[in-house]
Design goal:
This protein has about 575 residues and is mostly helical. A hairpin with a 2-residue loop joins strand 7 and strand 8. Helix 6 packs antiparallel against helix 7, helix 9 packs antiparallel against helix 10 and helix 10 packs across helix 23.
Length: about 575
């Protein structure tokens, strides 16, 4: 079991099938997803059976994807960092264009919440030891709380289900067909679940199993979101303070326990043994050559035009003097020079920038009719001209005839991520110190070749590009988060949601979000579609913002089943 789990960390179906093979009665009534309740004390009193049920939760972490499927990194393209995540030359559309009949964003969390409720109830009535009950209950509550957080960020008010409901029971039917619960009440319930998990999951240090540190990292994420919603959407200072303080309490110990390393790209392009040994990693998804692989590197190294970073994202990176484009004394040219192979060489431009940029994109601008070929790769093209280098490991054998041959491992929670949570929460609370910066932002700056920052220096930076209506300090912390976590886990989209800044994705008001690289080094006759010399990656598409985008519409099929749900006001 442990060997299989170590290799197939998130391939939970195989693990669970093995763990349930000795319990035919339970399988007959409770095949995934469990459809009815069980009171089989004997089943729930077997630690292996309960662990098998918990192993299903690993499926929630897609990492770099499974086989040819997309994962959490690179593919989500609705943000101002990149163009379409599909590889097409168009803007990624909003999460919802019309009211869907059904949605995995609604259905899947409730599947996992039901499983968590079954585990909690089954374990409570079992003969497991108190320590076993506590650990399994904490794992189930971690997932239940995190799933409610993900439901709330999509839908706001959602039905709060606190037990495994049985449609045959009248009281349960009332709950099944009841109205949505106010979002704050749901999030407070999720907070209690996450807090319980942080205090009661086994305090192991495994990077591929549920642990107390993983629970703290997940709680930090959820609380940062909720604190921001309270401040920027609800204008509720007391609630914001509660949740930002929770971030500090969760993330603070992790900042010290998982220090930020010296190699930015190693977090994203390492093989299993190296990432397992990386002291910055809290939780990871493992891949193994010829055993369990992914396609993220293949998809980002393709002759089909891939999604690249935007001019807006490129311009966000600081210069080596620690100043933004509007304030630096460095050369701010972004034109590059024509290379012998027909691409545009931007190595000199990257040399004067935040070093993370050079580890995220190639030092060439390339696109259709002017492709670029890395060693051992096929000719590549990008819709913005900027390639995706972040996930590439030069030591990995590349085969482009198939799309499931990548075996670099994916970070899921790591030191820099929780350090950014911590720094932002402290800044929101007004308690950020130079000492805090030294163990968070300045660690990232050091490996990026940037000078140390101070709180006073960030407060007085006053970048003229600040378009978020926040203090210079918060703007600079948000900049660092953007550059550090670019392409990661759809974080930029949800950051814009919680900061109440989805309007920045309106392409008419903010054209920099669909422009790409400067191509003026090419003769005008060889330039792709462009605006004032910058590649136009919009494909003629327009993405216009409307306030309704902050919440997903309730699937019509759910309302058909339960009219008490009611549709979101702005989606009616």
């Amino acid at each position: 079991m442990q060997t299989m789990k170590r290799i197939y960390i998130m391939s939970a179906v195989a693990i669970v099938a093995a763990s349930l093979s000795s319990c035919d009665d339970f399988l007959n009534d409770n095949r995934y997803p469990q459809s009815i309740q069980t009171s089989n004390v004997e089943y729930w009193s077997n630690p292996g059976n309960v662990q098998g049920q918990c192993n299903y939760f690993y499926e929630l972490f897609s990492g770099y994807g499974n086989g040819s499927g997309g994962g959490e990194f690179y593919f989500p393209g609705l943000n101002d960092n990149q163009t379409s995540g599909s590889g097409g030359n168009q803007l990624a559309p909003w999460k919802n264009i019309n009211v869907p009949t059904s949605s995995t964003s609604w259905d899947d969390p409730y599947i996992y919440i039901r499983r968590a409720n079954l585990i909690i109830e089954g374990v409570a009535g079992s003969t497991l030891t108190d320590a076993e009950k506590e650990n399994f209950t904490a794992i189930a509550r971690l997932i239940r709380g995190f799933q409610y957080y993900q439901l709330v960020r999509c839908y706001g008010d959602v039905p709060l289900v606190t037990k495994a409901l049985d449609p045959a029971v009248e009281e349960d039917r009332k709950e099944i067909f009841g109205p949505r619960t106010p979002r704050n009440q749901v999030m407070d319930y999720a907070f209690e679940d996450l807090d319980y998990a942080v205090k009661h999951i086994a305090a192991q240090k495994s990077k591929n199993a549920f642990s107390r540190d993983l629970a703290a990292a997940m709680m930090s994420e959820a609380c940062l979101y909720e604190g921001s919603i309270a401040r920027y959407h609800q204008n509720d200072a007391a609630r914001a303070e509660k949740y930002f303080n929770a971030v500090v309490n969760c993330a603070g110990p992790l900042v010290d326990a998982y220090p930020i390393g010296d190699d930015y790209q190693a977090t994203y392009n390492s093989f299993r043994s190296a990432l397992s040994a990386n002291a910055e990693v809290i939780f990871m998804k493992e891949y193994e050559k010829d055993v369990f692989m992914h396609a993220t590197v293949d998809y980002t190294s393709s002759s089909t035009p891939i999604s690249g970073i935007t001019k807006d994202a490129f311009d966000a990176y600081l210069f080596k003097d620690g100043k933004p484009k509007g304030l630096t004394s460095e050369d701010t040219s972004d034109a590059g020079v024509l290379a012998a192979d027909g691409t545009i060489d931007i190595s000199a431009l990257l040399a004067v920038r935040d070093g993370r940029l050079a580890q995220t994109i190639d030092d060439r601008v390339y696109f259709t009719d002017h492709p670029y070929k890395r060693p051992n790769s096929m000719p590549m093209t990008s819709v913005t001209g900027y390639g995706v280098k972040k996930f590439v490991n030069p030591e990995m054998d590349y085969t482009y005839t198939t799309t499931i041959w990548n075996y670099t491992c994916a970070p899921l929670y790591w030191g820099a991520l929780v350090a950014l949570d911590y720094a932002e929460a402290k800044a929101e609370l007004g308690t950020l110190s130079d000492g805090d910066l030294n163990k968070t932002i300045n660690k990232m700056f050091a490996r990026a070749g940037l000078p140390d920052a101070t709180v006073d220096g960030l407060k007085s930076m006053n970048d003229p590009a600040n378009n978020m209506g926040v203090s210079s300090l918060l703007w600079e912390i948000r900049r660092c988060r953007r550059c550090e976590l670019i392409y990661d886990k759809d974080l930029r989209y949800w950051d814009l949601v919680r900061w109440h800044k989805l309007d920045l994705l309106d392409s008419q008001s903010h054209p920099e979000i669909y422009l790409g690289a400067n191509v003026t080094a090419l003769p005008e006759s060889e330039r792709p579609a462009n605006v004032n010399g910058y590649m136009d990656a919009s494909g003629g598409q327009i993405r216009k913002f409307a306030e309704r985008e902050y919440l997903f519409p309730i699937p019509s099929g759910q309302i058909g089943l339960n009219s008490a749900l009611e549709q979101q006001e702005l989606w009616k």
